[in-house]
Amino acid sequence: MMIPIRCFTCGAPLADKWDEFKKRVEAGENPSKVLDELGVRRYCCRKTLISHVELIQEIAKLSRIS
Amino acid sequence: MEVRILKKEGSLVEFELPGEDHSLPNLIVKLALKRPEVDYAAYNIPHPLVGSPRIVVRVREGEPLDVVRSIVEEIIALSREFREKIEERLKE
Amino acid sequence: MEITVLESTPTRVRLLVKDAPLALVNAVRRLILSEVPVMAVDEVIFLENNTAMYDEIIAHRLGLVPLTSERALEKYRSPEECAECTDCEDCFVSLYLDIAAEDQPVIVYSGDLKSTDPDVQPVYDNMPLIYLAPGQRVSLEARARLGRGKEHAKWSAATVAAHKYLPVIKFDFTKASRETVEECIECIEGASREIAKKLREMKKGEYQVLEDVNTSLYHYCSRTACKDVLEIEYRDDSFILTIESTGALPPKRILTEALRILEEKSRSLLEALGASTGGGESS
């Protein structure tokens, strides 16, 4: 749904890096370089940012069953 | 900290530390094994979910509990030294 | 016991520790992950939430947000006293959120949390927490308390707490043919260009690998391209201790707290042992 607050494996805070990562990669930069510059070193953390899809934006459009 | 002494027979003492994990018992045992007066030292956690480590120390000479106390004093001295060195070396 | 600082940033510290027993370094490492207390949200009271994210999802995210905890260690009561408190004075910090989205979607960030204590704030304010579609509103009170990593990983003071033996590369390029030396250096470059360069300059000797690299590839090199020319060994009297903080506490404080906890536990044990001579007694 939304970006996990921390890496599942090591617990490193990741959510603070999401907005910048997304913006720069959408602008065309190489994701690997962006991750290096943001200081995301371990591959457990890197995979979380690289493969995240913000599905919450689709889900929020659906109406609630009340 | 709670200590339950399970066995105290001459040169051997076995005690339990309810609520503890590996950190302290492992340290006690490893330091014990370095001492010439210690004949046997080991710890065991019978079940990880019911984590109550039991430590056994057997000495060649002297009172086992005194040796254990001396080991714990050594731990206090080592951690003090470590902490002082850290305070010194890592200036903010 | 000698300690040399190899790297020190606000979130990360690497130390070379000499002549300390392995069990001591390991105990410190374990205590950092499980016993050093840190502030984190533990209870959330929802007044309104009609977003697509359920209460518990939001509460879970809030719990994981790192909160600055350095002053809190002195100000608030210990986890043992607060975890199941009946008198909860000085246990909790409240963080409030009350945001509504009008006709545009709104993303609620960690910076929007309003804390009653300026010393306990989210470490990072740009963490997206909640997504509000137009017309949705969330209003909540989050209560944070001190806790230990052994209770829940959100209360763990560090992300990385690792120690390893000091790797030392012993090599002698003068005793081999140029082709062998070149092949060997190429193999090393596969792992670390810097180190390969330094080895090339040194030509022979012992190189202590203090850089933050993984040296396991060098075993492969020492068996193949660098056979008889280079080998890697690990000094078991020296450790490289790496501590990476979540941001809640500075690394130096994490270390000193862990050592203080070790000292306290030992003193408490000493007291308990001193009191007993025959049967069992608790202190």
Question: Can you walk me through this structure?
Answer:
The complex is a heterotrimer of chains A (66), B (92) and C (283). Chain A is an all-alpha fold. Chain A has helices at residues 15-26, 31-38, 43-50, 56-59. Chain A has one domain: Homeodomain-like (Arc Repressor Mutant, subunit A, Orthogonal Bundle). The longest helix of chain A has 12 residues, at 15-26. Chain B is α+β, with helices and mostly antiparallel strands and 92 residues long. In chain B, a hairpin with a 2-residue loop joins strand 1 (2-9) and strand 2 (12-16). In chain B, strands 1-2-4-3 form a four-stranded antiparallel beta sheet, with helices on one face. Chain B is globular. Chain B is 41% helix and 28% strand. The longest helix of chain B is centred in the last third of the chain and has 26 residues, at 64-89. In chain B, helix 1 packs across helix 2. Chain C folds into two domains: 2-34 and 160-242, Gyrase A, domain 2 (2-Layer Sandwich); 38-155, DNA-directed RNA polymerase, insert domain (RNA Polymerase Alpha Subunit, Chain A, domain 2), CATH 2.170.120.12. In chain C, helix 1 crosses helix 8, helix 5 (178-191) runs antiparallel to helix 6 (193-202) and helix 5 (178-191) runs antiparallel to helix 7. Chain C is flat. The model of chain C is unreliable at 277-283 (pLDDT under 50). Chain B binds chain C through residues 1-6, 8, 15, 17, 20-24, 26-27, 29-31, 34, 65, 68-69, 72-73, 75-76, 78-83, 85-87, 89-90, 92, and chain C through 1-5, 8, 13, 15, 20-24, 26-28, 30-31, 34-35, 150, 250-252, 255-256, 259-260, 262-263, 265-274, 276-283. Strand 1 (2-9) of chain B pairs antiparallel with strand 12 of chain C.
